[in-house]
Structures are given as structure tokens and as C-alpha cells.
Amino acid sequence: MRTARAPRGASVRCRRASLSTTTSRNMQSSSWSDHAAKYANNGNGLTLPLLLAALAHITPALDALAAQRAPQPLRILTTCGGPGVEAVLLCKHFGGKHVNILSTDNAEGMVQLARDSFEKEGLQDIAEARVLDAMKLDLPDQSYDAVLQLLGPMLLPDARASFAEATRVLTPGGVFCALTPGRMVIHDVMTSAKRGVLEKAGRGDEFQDLYSHRIMSEWGTPPKLKEQLEKCSAFAKVEAANAPAEMPVSSEAHLDEILQSLWDNPGMAFMYTSNLSEEQVAEFRAAVRKEMLKRRAESGKETWGAEMLGNVVCAWTAEK
Ligand SMILES: C[S@@+](CC[C@H](N)C(=O)[O-])C[C@H]1O[C@@H](n2cnc3c(N)ncnc32)[C@H](O)[C@@H]1O
């Protein structure tokens, strides 16, 4: 794949912004580890449609790199790779061969699940999982053709450090791909439920609209995601797009499964329930459930597809 060269004299490192460090326990690796199994079992309801939509955007760039690399296998690194869902999907995309994937995450529990999944799928020869912090990768320079960070950048205290690390480990002309969540029906419903709970408790002034939270205000649209990547001068070309998806809700029981995945997701807990009492959390959950069932009934469809938007970006390092 032809990519433009980086501007003359451009630094090969990214400028690091002083983004605030998240200290909430909900966002620590121990918390992701504790919730790993539940996230992996139930999380697919929420994240799989987004991952599939994002991979549909990303795979043409990977296919092009794979063709350049052939007969050598394409070397892919995933950071914030969680239980390895995208790694398995990518192995399958490449027909279980011509690819080597290292799936990394800083939560040991997630990495163990990724290993189990690779073994279960018979992918141990081409997929490996390792505990690594996306912001400090213990990997050699220029050792990967592609680095993917799906549903990760918006959770990191210093995402630009992770972009700098990605550009360091990428080969010249390699690609970095990221996915962040955008506007979604489920977020609209949860935002409104949260407002209701806080207002009822006389704490309406504490309400923070999700869309003004830094997770959305800095990462929630393709232009915002592109802007973040463009601050990294080591990328020669950056392309961003929306990845539209739908979260299928087929029955009340199915909705409960999906909602359970949200309650088990430390990122969601951090955004929505970290400042609520137990009673208020129960109230919040009941309100979300009720509204989702109402919307499904109004759709008139047995399986209602709640709209989701992902933001995908592909950024190429300069060729030699
Ligand atoms: C929302 S999950 C996404 C997982 C996977 N990419 C997916 O879409 O299913 C975010 C993941 O980022 C991981 N994570 C958070 N901070 C990290 C860091 N500093 N380095 C590596 N992984 C991190 C969490 O442990 C969690 O598994």
C-alpha cells in the first residue's frame, strides 16, 4: 500500500499530551481482570457488532499489507485486546494461516481468556496472548505490520503514549487501527436514566451528559479520533470513518443478557454508576431495562436492532 511520507523533519515520536490520569478502581487492570470472564461471556452482545463493523473497514488495509508480505505471514499486534475476540476473528479472516497475531492486554484475567480461546479454536500456532501495557510495550522496534487497538484508546490515561509505542513497533508503511464507541441508542437510554436517578435524589447538578464526558468529547466521532491520531507526527496518513452497527435485541431474556454485560463492564460502571448508591444503581438499571423494552415494542419487530455507531481510524506510518 502506497502512503505519503511524513513531513520533513517530523519527529518519529508522538507529542504527549498531559491527559488526566484516571484513578478510579473501575478502570484499573485488576478490575478488568476480575470482570474478564463475565465480559467475555456476555460482552459480545454489546461489543461484537461494533468489532465486526470495525473489522469490515480495517481488513482491506490488512489484506493489502498481507499481499505485500506474502509468502511471509502478516504480523498483527492487538493492544487492549481483552479476551482476544478480534484476534480470533482476524485469524478466521485469514483462513487460519498467513498471519501471526499477538493479543495483548494489561489485565492478566483477559489474557488468560484469550489464551483459552486460541486453544479452543485450534489457533495456538498463529495466535499468542501476553500481558502488556499498551502505553509501554516490551516489544522490539519495527516488529509488526499492523497494530490494532479496538475499544481501547478512550480508556487509557495517556493514549498518545500508546500511539507512540504503536509507531515504534510498526514497520515502515505499517498500519495502526483503532475503534472508539460513538453515539448509540443504549447510551442515550442510559444517559437519560442516570439523569432521572440523580434528579430524583436532588443531585441533578451532578449530572454529566455522556457526550460531554472526555470518552465521547475527545474520542466519540471520526473527526475527533482522526485529530487524536494526527497529533502523532509519525503517522503519514490518517483516515477515519463511521462504522454503523446494530445491537440485536431478540427477547426480554436476550435484553437481560446484554444488560448484564453492561453491568459487568468496568468501563460502563465507571461512566454510569460509580457515583450512585446500591439502591440508585438498581433504580438506574430498572429504568434502562424498561425504556429498552418500550423501544423494542415500538419498533414492532421481533428482533429490534438498537443503533450503534463505532468510530474507526486507520493510520499508516511513512514508508522507507
Ligand atoms: C472495552 S475492553 C476492549 C477489549 C477488546 N478490544 C474488545 O473489543 O473486545 C478494553 C480493554 O482494555 C484493557 N486495558 C485498559 N487499560 C490498558 C492498558 N493500559 N494496557 C493494555 N490494556 C488495557 C482492559 O483490560 C480491557 O480488556
UniProtKB/TrEMBL annotation:
One of its GO terms (molecular function) is methyltransferase activity. Residues 1-29 are annotated as: Disordered. It comes from the Eukaryota. The keyword Methyltransferase applies. Keywords: Methyltransferase, Transferase. Residues 76-174 form the Methyltransferase domain. Residues 18-29 have a biased composition (Polar residues). One of its GO terms (biological process) is methylation. PANTHER family: METHYLTRANSFERASE. This is S-adenosyl-L-methionine-dependent methyltransferase. It comes from Tilletiopsis washingtonensis.
